[in-house]
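Dear colleague,

Following up on Tuesday's group meeting, I ran the structure prediction for the two-component complex that the binding team flagged. I've pasted the input sequences exactly as they went in, so you can double-check that nothing got truncated or mislabelled along the way. The structure tokens for the whole assembly follow below. Feel free to forward this to whoever is handling the docking comparison.

Inputs:
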Amino acid sequence: MTSAVSILPESQLASLTEAYRMAVRRKRLRALLSTALFLAALTLAAVGSEVNLRTLFTYFGNFVSYFDRILTLDDGTRIWTNFGEWFWGWQKWLKLLGETILISYVGTLAGAVLAFALNFLAAENTSPSPWLRFVVRRALEFARTVPGIVFALIFVIAFGLGPMAGVLAIAIHSTGALGKLFSEIVENADMKPVEGVRSTGASWPSCMRFAILPQVTAGYASYALLRFEINVREASVMGFVGAGGIGQELVVAIRKFYYSDVSAILVTIIVTVFLIDIATGWLRARLFGRGARA
Amino acid sequence: MTRLPSEATREMRERYPDVFDRPASSRLATPLVIIVALAVFIFGLVDLDFAPSRLIAGISQLGWITLMMLPPDPGSSLPAYLAALGETLSIALLGTTLAAIAALPVSLLAASNIVPSAIFRFPVRRFLDSIRGVDTLIWALVWINVVGLGPFAGVLAIAVADFGAFGKLFSEAIEAADRKEVEGIRASGGGKLHEIRFGLMPQVLPVIAGQVLYFIESNTRSATIIGIVGAGGIGLQLAEQIRVLEWQKVSFLILMILVAVAVIDWISNRLRFAIIGRRAIA
């Protein structure tokens, strides 16, 4: 296929080329400026966070050999040569792992129930009054933004050491996170059923129950399961501040240099998280399947 | 409500048997799930020592703490807190940038359209997965063992933890890129590196930049936490003030964190919008 390419006269072309050059130059200048700005911010950050490359180079060998050490038993052999010795505390660890999962389960369920109670008030389309919506949204935002472990630190002082503080911290953080997600689902729900139910003279709670709830339950369950998955990770470090679970054992092992214990506990945590990821993934696929069919 | 005559209901029953006459198993499924969930919940409450007396005592204690938090007051340590906040932001920015720089080449190795052979891809992916499976706090503890207490350990912890996450996200972005531009480069005689640089990177970079910005935002939160185990930043101050029960300072620090997170949120949203907008124009 051939087509004639019309070449513009020299004078017109010159001005166009000039404009093109200007545009490219402006773009390059902008890229250069933002790169310089970014580098300046990085330098500032490096000074601020006491980056010391010499320390890193001197001790980087430690980082590599740390993994060598956690893969070695006390008698100098590799961990996989003697599983009984490596997982010597498996009964204690499994019990703590069970506690960790239980903490995240109870925390997630409590958080999901609270979020469920609040989300209709926070959603744009169902909230009974604008000021109530404002208050609920700010409260959820607060619960979401303050990290769970900060809540745990405070709750450990109020409720004493132990899993209770961890459960409550996870519950509050999950309320914030799930409340937002739930209310977004409600905002995407179809409002026609609500009009239908309201036209029969139903009250606000009945509208929510019979018009909104059937549309959103599958989404709720899916998000709650996802949250459970995240909370298992979160609960595994709650023990760092004394709020129960396997984190306590881990932090003691790391701080006291019980190297092979560190690797054993890390492996149990990673495997558990992995299994729970798979299980909830399967459950969510089933739920979404059912939601799509209904 | 008016009742339908039985004639009409019988007709409907026949027409929609799966609505009216569901088998017992499917009718019982929902209550059963609820009962099991509740039973586990109650078992959990008992097993985790949720005595009502403890709960009530704790809540009243919490009420006292909240009262003592008001009004938030930094005392004389405001400059120290501002410095700590700067440290936290530095940790987040530097850690995320290091992670992104390190993850970019590795993510190329984990993308199926760059490395077609699954034998090479598989170990890279599992490696990234296992890095991601370890929490940032644990990485912080490990790095404290290596480079000592302080914010530098925090930078390295965030860099390593995000390296795993970025490796996965970047390789997904690369796999989602359009083949045609790469083929165009190859058709005009470009080598493998040319394909990546001129065919792939222009498509992928805006996506990656968006993800990096989002991570800087979420790492501001993580960076506040890692101070609790001794890796520098505002978390260190927060944990200390909670331990010595200086509640007014605690509430001030929490407010500082909230404001900082909101500001970073706003900035990164603006930047992300600018990047995506530029792509839409180009």
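The first helix of chain A runs from residue 10 to 48.

Cheers,
M.
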